[in-house]
Structure formats: C-alpha cells, structure tokens
Amino acid sequence: MPRFPAAIESRLPDVGTTIFTVMSRLAAEHGAINLSQGFPDFSPPAALVDRVTHHMRAGANQYPPMAGAMPLREALAAKMAALYGTQYDPEHEITVTAGGTQALYTAVACMVRPGDEVIVFQPVYDSYIPAIELNGGKAVVATLQYPDYRPDWVAVRKLVTPRTRLIMLNTPHNPSGSVWTAEDMAQLADIVRDTRIAIVSDEVYEHMVYDGARHESCARHPELASRSFVCSSFGKTVHATGWKVGHVAAPRELMAEFRKAHQFTVFTVNTPVQLALADWMQDPSGYLELADFYQRKRDFFRDALAASRLQLLPCRGTYFQLASYAAISDEDDATLARRWTQEVGVASIPVSAFYTDPAQGQHKVLRFCFAKNEDTLARACEKLVRL
Ligand SMILES: Cc1ncc(COP(=O)(O)O)c(C=O)c1O
C-alpha cells in the first residue's frame, strides 16, 4: 500500500492503543484469565436473543426512526419515570444510541465549542477527554481522592470558570466502584445553579448498585435533570457489550441539539435489537434483579480473595473490584499488570491508566472485572491467593 503523501498533524497526538486492548491482547497471547476488559463471559438472556431473531425474521431490518424505535423509547421513558420519578417524553427527550460511548461523544459534540472547558473526574473513563479535545474543548480535571474516590466539592467549585460548558460525571464509577450519594448530587446542583453549565451523566452501570443503596441518577434530581444528558447502555444491563446499544435522556432543548449531531454521525441504530430490547423491558425484573446478580458475584470474588495478600477496596457498584497490591510488590501498576498477565496468568487493568498523568494515579491498585462465571473467578483467585 502506498503511504499517505503528507505529514499528518494529529488531532489526538497523545492517544495510542487503549490499555483495554493492550491487556486483552496480552491475555490472549499468554492464555491468561482475562479479568481486564469489562465484559461478561456469559450470554445475554436466551429469551432476548430469541426476540432479536424473531424481529429479524419478521422483517424489521430497515432503518428505524432517527431517534430510535418508538417502542424502545417508550419503554425507557416508563422505566425512568418508575425508577427516577422524571417523566421524559419519548418523542422529544429520549434517543437510542450506538452504545454509551456514542451517547457521551454526541452529547459533548453538540455542546462544546472551541475554547470551552469541560470538568471531568479522574480516574476518568478513557473516551471522555478525546471526545472533548476532538471538539476543540479543554478538559479540566478534578481528582477523586484515593482510597475512597469521593469528589472534593470545594476543589471542584474552584475549577468552574465562565468558560465551563459541561461537567461530565460517572456514577456508579468505573474503575473505582464508588457511587455518588444524594449529598453529592446536591453539591453538584449547588455548583451549577445560575450558570449555563450542562451535565453529561454517564450512568451505564445504573442497575449495579449494591448493599441496598440506590442509584442517584441525575434524572432523580429535578434541578439536575433540567440540564443533564443522562446516558446509559444496554451493553452492561443485558450482558451484551458487543450489541452496542445505549440511550440518552435529556430535556427537549438539549435533545434537539443532540439529535442534530446524532443524525449526521450514526443517524440511527440497528432495528431488530431495539425492538427486542423493548420487548425484554416489559418485565422489569430483568434489570431490577441485576444488582443482586452482580452483588453475588462481587461477594464470591471477594470471599475467594480473602486469603490473598491483596487488599480489597470497597465496591459499591459496577462490576469492577479494585485491589491494592502494596503488600506484595513495589512495582508500578502497569509493569505489574503486564507481569502478572504473563507469569501468573491473570490479566487486570492498572488504575493509573485512568489518570491524565499516570504518575499521579500511582496508588498500586489494579482493577479486576468480576462479570465472569464463578468457575472463571475461582480459577483466577486460586492463582492470586498464591502471591
Ligand atoms: C464508564 C463507562 N462509560 C461508557 C462505557 C461505554 O459503554 P458502551 O460499551 O455501551 O459504549 C463504558 C464501557 O465500559 C464505561 O465503563
């Protein structure tokens, strides 16, 4: 293949291959148990897969409406009203997206102008800052304090300037497993009150909150709901990260802007999966029982590691467990994660990868994904307790 004949001034000069791809590749090369990337090693509900096939065979294979199949938007509106008490209009206030990633990206793209500032919290999910920078914005980073990963609201308030356009948050939080409280939401509302700041709330783990706590959605808080893009993903909820279907809810004025960008990026999302998800949502137990399902996995994983020298941090939500290896090794987390993948046979993610400056996030902590069959978790733990 001939080479491109000019120098490319990269729009994202600092972006390389993501740590998730690197670790998954390394795990495959070395036959390691892959607890790195966040995806289940079990299947979506069989009845849901049957509904996808049903809709394909029934001929639902052409474009759905730009904003998503109406039965799915209606089901999402009903769920959000029942769980969070806010009534979104499916016609104007809910859009189905190609996964959570596209929901987040498009929310940023439709709001951020060159020079605008966007406050993000680190450890930060890897798509946020590139999305901001591709749209000419500047990421302004607040740090969630180790080991609790709680927001420091005094510090956040100081980061707000007249150029702040968005605040992006993630609860339940990847990678830390922390969840924001009603008090956090009240603090956030206080900071944005009387400003033009909008909020992009990444709630892809909304149905994975443990120990009887409740998910504090921005949709639950009327003041925040009035300025938020509430983003989520079926990938996490139905054990089908590869289907790439997500959704966003926002007040009509924000959603009108979102759809202008959405229609020229993906336009819409595949029809049969949307219709199948709408059918599946008719029985709320599918998503309401997810927290118990994953809490059992969390407890299984933690119990199996109790005899190890890893120190387990609290996990209040998501399907990630953080563990400090400070009692085992002095190596930095990226070196150790690679070595354990090769030599121990268990792949994890170094948490420093979620920091703009990995040296700042060097707390000797690894992230393990427990969205796996118990057999997979047991085999991994057997190896980890020997260390
Ligand atoms: C915090 C967070 N946001 C967004 C996403 C992306 O969701 P999706 O796979 O639906 O694009 C993920 C996936 O891992 C995530 O962990």
Describe this structure in words.
This protein starts with 18 loop residues before the first helix and ends with a helix. The mean pLDDT is 97. The chain folds into two domains: 19-44 and 288-385, Aspartate Aminotransferase, domain 1; 46-284, Type I PLP-dependent aspartate aminotransferase-like (Major domain) (Aspartate Aminotransferase, domain 2, 3-Layer(aba) Sandwich), CATH 3.40.640.10. The protein is an alpha/beta fold and 387 residues long. The chain is globular. Helix content is 39%, strand content 14%. The strands form three sheets. A seven-stranded mixed β-sheet has the order 2-8-7-6-5-3-4, sandwiched between helices. The chain has helices spanning 19-30, 46-57, 70-84, 99-111, 128-134, 153-159, 182-192, 222-225, 234-237, 252-262, 271-280, 285-288, 290-305, 333-344, 374-385; strands spanning 33-34, 94-97, 117-122, 138-143, 164-170, 198-202, 228-233, 246-249, 311-312, 320-324, 346-347, 349-350, 365-369. Bound molecules: pyridoxal-5'-phosphate. Pyridoxal-5'-phosphate binds at residues 38, 99-101, 125, 170, 174, 202, 204, 233, 235, 241, 246.
Structure characteristics:
387 residues; alpha/beta; Aspartate Aminotransferase, domain 1; Aspartate Aminotransferase, domain 2; 2 domains; seven-stranded mixed beta sheet; four-stranded antiparallel beta sheet; 15 helices; binds pyridoxal-5'-phosphate
